[in-house]
Amino acid sequence: MRLSAFPPNFVPTRAIRSISLLMSTTPTDTDRQHDTRPVLDVLRRLNIAHGTDADLASLTWYKVGGRADVLAHPTNAEQLCELVACCAAHGVSLRVLGSGANLLVGDQGVPGLVVRFDAGALAGVEVRDNGTVVAAAGFDLMRLVSLTAGKGLDGLQGLAGVPASVGGAVRMNAGGRYCDTGQTITRVRVVSSDGRLHDLPRRDIEFAYRHTSIAADAIVVEAEFALQHGDSDVLRKRVLEIMGDKKASQPLGAKSAGCTWKNPTPPRRYLSDDAPRPADGDPHGWPAGMLVDRAGLKNFAVGGARISDRHANFIACDPHATATDVLSVMRHAEQVVLERFGVTLQREVVVWCAG
């Protein structure tokens, strides 16, 4: 099945207000000297909506950061393949933006091309009678959770409240205490760095804590989920319960990007039976937010960025914040936690910088 050929029960999204994760990135660039003229030629030839010197801050949850040389909105996998091949041939960096959760764009912006899947076949979903759901990378994960629960399909309700597009959720195996994205996936379609489409069956993908074995330079364009038929009323109620739990403990109304750091020790479901467990009182077994909290860093602020007093794994921004402020808060918290507990925090938030 091609992304450009969804059947009649295909549900497109027009202006998705997703709370999405970063779907994939290329390595950090050392300067902004990328010649994007070949890319612009392809965009014009294929009639792909795009802009130059494009604002990125408004597309992220933090609402801070710089601009992109070029921001494009391909609508199908074929267009994306041509763009990927062009960027590879001409040495132009390519980044994929979901809807901006778990992403911090540096104040100086980024060179090259940024693509966003917010229209057409790259932002739709197909629900089949047998419980199979095929979701494009740009489809909002929370909308997918609500859609499937409403149709009585069991398997994704544990992802309620996870800020992600489908592509971003697959890329990092997003999830939480209730479940993770990879648990119901049967197939993932990607575009490789040479601009070719590949279908990856579940058996060829390793899903781990906030990680998959999908190549770092591959771009997720579609995922297939195998769900079970259930009671829609029960599933919708469960979604509401999980959302209520998150609203009570997380600053969901703040300008934040979701959890800033990964937990130092993966949840038990990722550990083999013979894997060593942290001893009682070992800080490596504490959640990242607890470590930051016990380091006395709630409400620590630099400029307009502050560690939340509700949940210490969240950094919130006021209207005057900059990306540099957020980075300064991150680095300070990481240093204090390392010095006090000997634990190195790994970021869940991805940082895009020009240099």
Report on the structure:
By secondary structure, the protein is an alpha+beta fold. It folds into 3 domains: 11-120, Uridine Diphospho-n-acetylenolpyruvylglucosamine Reductase, domain 2 (2-Layer Sandwich), CATH 3.30.43.10; 121-234, Uridine Diphospho-n-acetylenolpyruvylglucosamine Reductase, domain 3; 253-352, Uridine Diphospho-n-acetylenolpyruvylglucosamine Reductase, domain 1, CATH 3.90.78.10. Helices cover 24% and strands 22% of the residues. It has helices spanning 37-45, 77-90, 141-150, 166-172, 232-249, 288-294, 323-341, and strands at residues 10-11, 49-55, 67-73, 94-97, 103-105, 110-116, 125-127, 132-136, 153-154, 185-191, 197-201, 207-208, 211-212, 219-226, 228-229, 301-302, 305-307, 315-317, 350-352. The strands form 6 sheets. A 6-stranded antiparallel sheet has the order 1-7-8-14-10-11. A 4-stranded mixed sheet has the order 2-3-6-4, with helices on one face. Helix 1 runs antiparallel to helix 2 and helix 3 (141-150) packs antiparallel against helix 5 (232-249). The protein starts with 9 loop residues before the first strand and ends with a strand.
